[in-house]
């Protein structure tokens, strides 16, 4: 917990908005909201609490949309290593929230198994097609948590693009196979995208390739060795070159656009092939989830995620929530599994104080399996400081 004086904000009209992301590996965003609410009401039994689980476009985005009232739809698609998987998207009033991790996410691989060179985004294309089939006119495409580094080639192939090798055969799945690409044809892409507003929601603004590109920055998280990173970077660069011959300078322009490197370069595929627009994931998701009216009703906002660290400050959900709340003049406190930010960094982000589960149980091996009860107790401590 950070140091500093506490100004209590509660009175008989106090209303708390719990707008937190998941605690990865321990609790979903919905479970976080439930546990925080239970802990607050231990101390203030009649407290008004509104919950709005949030996500930044990565894994958990569909669940957050469903918690906000969207309808959950399920479809069978191709998983990252070719096996069928059940993936979900969310739909409400012509707006679909599609999460690429549902079809092509790292969590779909067996524990400890990676497929850095061969994992495909083909199923993400199938998931987008399912959203179109369901009548979506606006698609929020959340990208993050991917097992893939194929530049979105698999996704585009599922939607009608053709990527052929020198023998005129389709190239294999995954990023490494793009080194064999001889020709690209995007003319067969699903024409419905011309009439759909496709918005790329990502918490990263990395380019496709280079030292800050998808392979170099995120490849190691997907099991890529240094040699694999070089292979993938060269293959994706070749992908761009071949696309330039097919569609012109747009191919190279999109490769350096914000969001191109999102989720192993699927952002690039969406930008270059599907005319997607890019918005920071948490900013877009707060709009979609109805955060502004909920914020207006609140006197105190509680946000959080599993680890509050330097990454949090660069487009993660708690930073987005705190920024919007500060602009509205509302106090924000945070809960987290572990805290790796000094008080001044929290303050600069608009967070008054942060409470970590490690304050109660310093051993992560013990705190993660017991995150639920620890979070309830943490929320009770927060309520005693701010609401009682």
TrEMBL record:
InterPro entries for the chain: Glyc_kinase_flavodox-like_fold, Glycerate_kinase, Glycerate_kinase_RE-like, Glycerate_kinase_sf
EC number(s) stated in the UniProt entry for this protein: 2.7.1.31
Keyword Chaperone in record: no
SUPFAM superfamilies, per the entry: Glycerate kinase I
GO molecular function: glycerate kinase activity
Keywords: Kinase, Transferase
Family assignment from sequence similarity: Belongs to the glycerate kinase type-1 family.
PANTHER family: GLYCERATE KINASE
Name the record gives this protein: Glycerate kinase
Source organism (scientific name): Streptomyces solicathayae
